[in-house]
Design goal:
Radius of gyration: 24 Å
Number of strands: 28
Structural class: alpha/beta
Strand content: 25-35%
Largest sheet: 6 strands, mixed
Shape: globular
Number of helices: 11
Strand order of the largest sheet: 5-4-3-2-1-14
């Protein structure tokens, strides 16, 4: 089928905004689209002076604004998804995604569960998870903007059968298009159609003052565009420009979203361990761990003979050294511990790799004094069929530079594993792994750092990644450097073969507020995430 993501600007004039919506639907239909996705806050700018104004200017489900959109869907015989504010009869004002069918009927609606920054001042979060809508085209899930900056909502929709996720955005963050949008497709093996705004996102007269409070240059408080259509392997098959109106069109095959297997035959959903994920769907607990060190020197050793590089890194002052999984081949746990301890002798460094420990794949943390910690791989995979004994949770080690978690091998594909590490107050995650699908490196690991505020150091045979948390993160506070357009994307150091050194900042993991009142970890919509902990039939 042919789908379209349309991007445009919306201001404070409801009539003008409606006319723009209808015109863009017409343009998408003229391009042959059977399904059209519009941005977030189609009816009005997201900024309001007070709660009363927000409620007064919001749409009603039987009002003229949505009635006109429904009528236009019926005129073209197309599905139309948009996002507007809705005035509820109980006095709440919700930010709601709606899907209209080709006969103009309302097929489903989803109130935004996680609000971004000042949205929470005058609008109300949803209280129930959105539906998965079964249509002749396929099974469709709806989400909006901030709900896609973390993995929870999209994972929930996928687990309930969605093949196609429709995202409406109102964002000036450039890392939406480069990271948060495509990773949701790849990690769930579903299609994603995402429509973002362009043009000013704030009232023109107030923009300088608000931008100053946000710590963002006024000229950058514009929608970031780059609306896109993403395939289940993370490939962006069509993308709009950074600025200006656009209709982004692609023909897609939804059956591709029914294939959930990795190259080794592992089904990414069947391999899940729902019983381990209960903390994600439980009442958030405030962080109790003290901040880690301001900086930690780290190294990646990607070498067929890792001992010389390990010794060199330790002697040079590296505090954490990460090697690929099974870096010592068939050597057993005791032998690997002895070899690494000798290489680290006389230093305060810790080295991380993995070993085959009988019928388990074990992450191993070693210091000059010997074994410091063990983490069993949590999920069974086709790549290591011998690893049938699995771990029962994510352990966090208290080390001099901060709190360390180890994610072993193919556990790195699991969004839930890193979420558990963040909930357990890890500052740094070491990931000894083998190279997998390309998205796992380009999108997966950077997103795990971004959405959970985790420093990540990962190694595989050909190289690795050092993902460092920057202090320039929270909007509404002053940034040390210039605003780049990226909000939560970590600083990336790509490691090649051999020894690569760098640094991470454990203390930065304490701050998880991406904006005012928006905590990436404890702000998760935990009440609606029951599907994450339900055992599949």
């Amino acid at each position: 089928m042919r789908v379209a993501a349309v991007q445009f600007a919306a201001g404070e004039d409801l009539a003008v905004n409606l006319a723009t919506c209808l015109r863009m639907i017409d343009e998408a239909a003229a391009a042959g689209a059977e399904l059209v996705v519009l941005p977030e806050f189609c009816n009005h700018l997201s900024w309001y002076p007070d709660r009363e104004t927000a409620h007064r200017l919001a749409c009603t489900l039987d009002g003229g604004f949505l009635g006109a959109v429904a009528g236009r869907a019926a005129r073209h015989g197309a599905y139309v998804k948009l996002n507007v504010t809705v005035a509820r009869e109980d006095g709440r004002t919700t930010i709601t995604s709606l899907l209209y069918g080709p006969d103009g009927s309302l097929l489903g609606q989803a109130d935004k569960l996680t609000l971004m920054g000042a949205e929470g001042d005058h609008m109300d979060p949803g209280t129930e998870r959105g539906p998965v809508i079964d249509t002749p085209l396929g099974r469709i899930g709806l989400y909006a903007c901030m709900e896609g900056v973390t993995s929870d909502v999209c994972r929930d929709l996928t687990l309930r059968g969605a093949q196609l996720l429709l995202n409406s955005l109102n964002s000036f963050a450039t890392d939406e298009a480069s990271l948060h949008i495509p990773v949701r497709a790849a990690e769930n093996k579903v299609w994603v159609v995402a429509a973002n705004k362009v043009g000013p996102l704030l009232p023109e007269a107030l923009t300088p003052a608000i931008a100053e409070r946000l710590g963002v240059p006024p000229e950058q408080v514009h929608g970031a565009g780059e609306s896109q259509i993403v395939a289940p392997d993370g490939t962006v098959v069509a993308k709009g420009p950074r600025t200006g109106e656009a209709v982004v069109v692609a023909d897609i095959d939804l059956s591709l979203a029914d294939v959930k297997t990795r190259p080794d035959g592992t089904d990414i959903l069947a391999a899940r361990r729902p019983e381990l994920y209960r903390p994600i769907a439980s009442v958030p607990v405030e962080r109790t761990a003290p901040p880690g060190a301001d900086a930690c020197r780290v190294a990646v050793v990607a070498d067929a003979d890792p001992l010389p590089g390990t010794a060199e890194a330790a002697a040079a002052g590296a505090e954490l050294i990460v090697l690929p999984e099974l870096a010592f081949g068939a050597a057993d746990r005791a032998e690997v511990t002895e070899l690494l301890a000798k290489a680290l002798s006389g230093t305060a460094a810790y080295a991380v790799t993995s070993v085959r420990d009988g019928d388990a794949h074990a992450g191993l943390v070693v210091s000059a004094g010997g074994e410091a910690g063990v983490q069993l791989q949590l999920h069974r995979t086709g790549r290591h069929p011998w690893a049938v004994r699995t771990g029962e949770g994510v352990a966090v080690l208290e080390l001099p530079f901060g709190r360390l978690a180890v994610v072993v091998g193919d556990d790195s594909v699991s969004v839930e594993t890193f979420r558990l590490a963040a909930i357990a107050d890890a500052d740094v995650v070491a990931v000894p792994r083998s190279a997998g699908e390309s998205w796992e490196t380009s999108l997966g690991l950077p997103e795990r750092a971004a959405e959970n505020r985790l420093n990540i150091v990962s190694a595989w045979a050909e190289g690795g990644l050092i993902l460092d948390l920057t202090g320039d993160f929270t909007l509404w506070t002053a940034w040390e450097g210039p605003f780049t357009g990226r909000i939560s994307h970590p600083l990336v150091t790509e490691a090649g073969p051999g020894l690569t050194t760098g640094a991470v900042h454990p203390a930065q993991a304490v701050n998880r507020f991406v904006s005012k009142n928006t905590d990436l970890v404890n702000g998760r919509a935990w009440r609606t995430l029951g599907s994450l902990v339900e055992t599949a039939p």
